[in-house]
Write a structure and sequence with these properties.
Two copies of one chain form a homodimer. Chain A has helices at 16-29, 41-44, 72-78, 83-92, 105-116, 152-170, 191-201, 215-218, 228-253, 257-277, 303-318, 321-330, 337-343; strands spanning 3-8, 33-39, 57-61, 98-101, 126-132, 138-142, 176-180, 206-211, 223-225, 285-288, 293-296. With 344 residues, chain A is an alpha/beta fold. Chains A and B meet through helix 8, helix 9 and helix 10 of A and helix 8, helix 9 and helix 10 of B.
Chain lengths: 344, 344
């Protein structure tokens, strides 16, 4: 079956200059993928070069662009013909099975939620990404900033969504789900995480209990659940540490002629390390909990990174992430309403 | 003036085997420091070697030890003759001006708060530490786990405490205070941080607004304020990233004979980088907001790291951190009670 992906060509720091070539290159490698490039024709057509639009490569006009710093509510109300909105609309209409955007995250979330709606039982969508870990694999973490305050129920739903994402993409039917906390003991944390732990224990997921910040990188769990405030702070701090280590290495290797020789000799090693840590390799955060696949590429993505986000979109459709979340939510034990009220 | 530090000799992973030699070595270098070594005499005396107790080196018997995993409430109630409790008591009694422990953080916080009490206007003490940043300096961050739920008022108080710590130790009277958030715009974050931002704006501190996780390592602010849940997760995730980068470097350098030669050539560089990132260098977290100086050493501290915590204790006393916090809190504009109720 051909999977069709709607591409918001206008998002990101570089816009169509990156998204269009990346999409074309990606499609050349994948005979099973159809693309709908969305944006002002005048901005996209000149970048098509030898490619001619056909059934597998369509263009869809959109006259507006959502600004990277535009308030989500404004984008939702005022930009009904934006490339982002039209791309999401294509998923809603069934013309595409997924959409990819490197644009404004808040706007993409607001538009996706408004147009596509959340899946049954899901209160709020969440943003999930993968981070490399010391086991040589990846840890999936969510939420990364869509929800600054979460109820215990939402955290449990994030666990279901993250587990189904990993089950689908990694073909691991019982991924380990951990709850980010400030200690591994049950008594740690605030009331919200304590109650979320109880819900996760009863969820039927392979819940392994509390994990701490360093467990994300140790690979203790396959899925780490937290609220969007914590997830965002952790993700950005992690990027900060990695940048600082890189900058320190550079500085120290440049400190003398002898050290610059050492740097030259070590270049293959430093490149390999950089490559393994390279966030471009796992570009493409999933907006989970929606009635459709929506992938957010990093705004600074280059062609290589944007193609990874497209790949991720196709994989999520092919492996039925949305269907898996739907089925798992329906299979959850029904929580009696009394203890829920008492605890929250 | 001689500054006297009470040392909980029984705390940490290694207990007196590390704390006693570290204390003796530190004192040899500092003629102006008196020490009171607290713990069971039988555990400490054999480690004194050539040193004989005198006015500058006293021993204080304590028959109990707080376990590293002991619940704080239990340590508080049942361990009234523990080395930790006796060391804190010495500060309360004025026999020592500071106390240092590598023991159970929760117990140290509970005991310190119970025995010493908080300063006027401080609702809850917080744990602060310094982290290296890309400007070649340090960023002070608090809280790191003492308070999992914080009110806006508490976050504002953390700002005052952190700023006074930096003012005292770095002799910078207007340290930049940032509030950790998921974006720099005022509209970002939950209600608690939005209200905390307002309070910080009115505090008279050099408040620079919201900062994000990577700003900790960029050195955008001198003090980064957050609740203890977020701070703990960020700190541990940061340690995790640093460990992963270190492990990846090691792995890649070991991959072939040629690469092992490159490692040998690069050894001075790798050592320099490791040294700059070394958390032992800035060991010693401050329990701020108490009527006395209490320093928490990392549990895994070796002699070098534990001596750093002792140094920090002496510096905080000498530079009057407690007095500065007290004065600054007294100088805060009195918040009218109505908006506080309305907003919280």
């Amino acid at each position: 079956m051909t999977i069709t992906v709607a591409v918001d060509c206008m998002g990101g720091d570089h816009g169509p200059a990156v998204t269009v070539p990346a999409a074309l290159e990606f499609q050349r490698e994948r005979a099973d993928v159809g693309l709908i490039l969305v944006g002002p024709g005048g901005a996209i057509a000149p970048l098509l070069r030898a490619e001619t639009p056909g059934p597998r490569l369509r263009l869809r006009e959109a006259t507006q662009v959502v600004g990277m710093d535009e308030p989500p509510a404004q984008a939702l109300r005022m930009k009904k013909d934006s490339s982002m909105r039209v791309a999401v609309n294509l998923v809603k209409a069934g013309e595409a099975q997924a959409c990819v955007s490197a644009g404004n995250t808040g706007a993409l979330m607001a538009i996706s939620r408004f147009v596509l709606k959340t899946l049954p039982g899901i209160d709020r969508p969440a943003i999930a990404t993968v981070l490399p870990n010391m086991r040589g694999g990846y840890t999936t973490m969510l939420d990364l900033g869509a929800n600054v305050d979460c109820t215990p129920e939402q955290l449990m739903q994030f666990g279901v969504m993250g587990a189904m994402l990993v089950a689908a993409l990694e073909h691991d039917e019982r991924p380990r789900v951990g709850l980010l906390n400030i200690g591994v003991e049950d008594i740690k944390g605030n009331d919200t995480v304590k109650r979320a732990a109880e819900l996760l224990k009863d969820s039927g997921l392979n819940y392994i209990g509390n994990v701490e910040g360093d467990d994300i990188y140790k690979g203790t769990a396959d899925v780490v659940v937290c609220d969007g405030f914590v997830g965002n702070a952790v993700l950005k701090a992690s990027e900060g540490v990695a940048q600082m280590v890189g900058a320190t290495l550079k500085e120290e290797f440049a400190r003398s002629a002898l050290r610059r020789v050492a740097a030259l000799v070590s270049l293959p090693v430093l490149r390999a390390v950089k490559d393994r840590m390279d966030h471009r390799r796992y570009n493409g955060a999933s907006l989970l909990g929606l009635r459709g696949v929506v992938i957010k590429s990093h705004g600074s993505a280059d062609e290589y990174a944007f193609a990874q986000a497209l790949r991720r979109a196709v994989e999520e459709v092919r492996n039925e992430v949305v269907e898996r979340i739907t089925r798992r939510m329906a299979a959850l034990p029904q929580a009696p309403s009394l203890p829920r009220f008492a605890a929250t």
